[in-house]
Design goal:
This protein is of the alpha/beta class. 37% of the residues lie in helices and 14% in strands. The strands form 2 sheets. Strands 1-7-6-5-4-2-3 form a 7-stranded mixed sheet, sandwiched between helices. Strands 8-9-12-11-10 form a 5-stranded mixed sheet, covered by helices on one side.
């Protein structure tokens, strides 16, 4: 695989943080926003800040995203994290959120109004599908869901009132791949804003902004933090757009605590090392599962027979630490295999140091109707796996004995 090409025009990264090795970038990301001699940024564990004068207070209250007014509006520790988010994704600016859902919902709500139209990939994190189907629809925002692997699907769905193209790649939980450069070019040509959820790839594997996407959302809970001990989210984009989103963050109140911001900063320093190991282990385990007689289908873009393999090779530096497989026997068989696992932990979330597995139809995507799951290609026997840092041979042995339960 090769480095993702850098888009021309306003969609490229800032000149003041050139493309460096991901490990170098992760170690030093955000340093420019941190004053002082402490190697680790201090935690400003405070809800509010003292004003020097009435004039100072008035100026701060009229500012966009002030760093030292009230922590819901901004916080010095969080500002360091936001600078790190922007540098990791190759964007101009970023905002930190209390969760990935807070980030995604706030980013979308800042872009659409009643009467607008959205085109979204048909396989997304269940919470975002619920946002489009059950929250925005009653407010008069219509969403057309399309197959991201179908050539021309996004273009065919765009209307005169389309305001947003929303994608997630690899998709949760089928690992469908979206051609980000094509979606970005369509957005530019039709004047439609584009947002990509980059949670599953992480900026180590994909940098959508370099491919022309306008903005990125992240559940920083996952690979950015990497230790299953904090909930957080991020949006990254051009400074003018971030300034547009910030008032919604202020009003909705989805800010992270200063300590959570510090925890994510601590975690992201080792992200490239973790992701490199997870990429390699996931590919090894995907190959094992693909050859197993009790497995009907393996969803992993690193396998040559995956429908999005060619695109993934073009836009990803690694195929990621997430995979999914479907077992013969459907819903009940999927649950039996999951319950037979001994090393892999039965738990939601992903991107941490431990391997996690869930049966999508009965857990992460249970809030969706069977029709909504079918629309996204989610089989009733699909098991989603987040590969951790355990030895791959140990994990293979665990999956092998669990599949024997069938």
């Amino acid at each position: 695989m090769t480095d993702a090409p850098t888009a021309d025009g306003d969609h490229g990264p800032r000149d003041d943080h050139p493309r460096r090795d991901p490990s170098t970038l992760a170690v030093h990301a955000g340093a420019s926003a941190h004053d002082g001699s402490a190697l680790s940024p201090p935690v400003f564990q405070t809800s509010t800040f003292r004003f020097d004068s009435a004039e100072h207070g008035a100026g701060m209250c009229s500012s966009v995203a002030p760093g030292e007014l009230y922590t819901r509006w901004g916080n010095p520790t969080t500002k360091v994290l936001e600078r790190a988010y922007a540098e990791l994704e190759g964007g101009e600016a970023a905002l930190a959120f209390a969760s990935g859902m807070a980030a995604g919902v706030t980013a979308v709500m800042a872009m659409v109004r009643g009467g607008d139209h959205v085109v979204a990939a048909n396989c997304l994190y269940a919470g975002m599908t619920e946002l489009f189907d059950r929250v925005l629809a009653p407010l008069g925002v219509e969403t057309t869901f399309v197959d991201p692997g179908e050539p021309g699907a996004f273009e065919a769905a765009v209307r005169d009132n389309t305001k947003l193209l929303y994608v997630e790649t690899p998709a949760n939980p089928t690992l469908a791949i979206t051609d980000l450069a094509t979606v970005a070019a369509l957005g530019r040509a039709r004047g439609v804003f584009t947002i990509a959820d980059n949670t599953w790839a992480s900026p180590c594997n994909t940098r959508p902004i370099e491919l022309g996407i306008d903005a990125v959302v992240q559940s920083a809970t996952k690979y950015l933090n990497g230790h299953s001990d904090v909930i957080a989210g991020a949006v990254v984009g051009k400074q003018t757009w971030i300034d547009q989103v910030w008032p919604y963050l202020k009003i909705f109140g989805g800010c992270p605590s200063p300590h959570d911001s510090w925890l994510v900063l601590r975690g992201l320093r080792t992200m490239p090392l973790r992701v490199e190991r997870q990429n390699a282990s996931a590919l090894t385990i995907a190959r094992f599962l693909a050859a197993h007689p009790s497995v009907d289908l393996v969803h992993y873009p690193g396998l040559p027979d995956h429908p999005g393999h060619a695109i993934a090779r073009r836009q990803m530096k690694g195929f990621g630490g997430m995979l999914a497989f479907e077992v013969a026997g459907g819903f009940e068989a999927g649950k039996r295999v999951l319950e037979a696992l001994r090393l892999a932990t039965h738990a939601v979330s992903l991107g941490g140091i431990e391997t996690l597995a869930v049966h999508a139809a009965s857990t992460t995507h249970a809030p969706l109707t069977p029709e909504e799951r079918a629309r996204g290609g989610i089989g009733e026997g699909l098991i989603r796996v987040s590969i951790g840092l355990e030895g791959p041979e140990d994990l293979i042995a665990d999956f092998d004995q669990a599949l024997a339960a069938l």
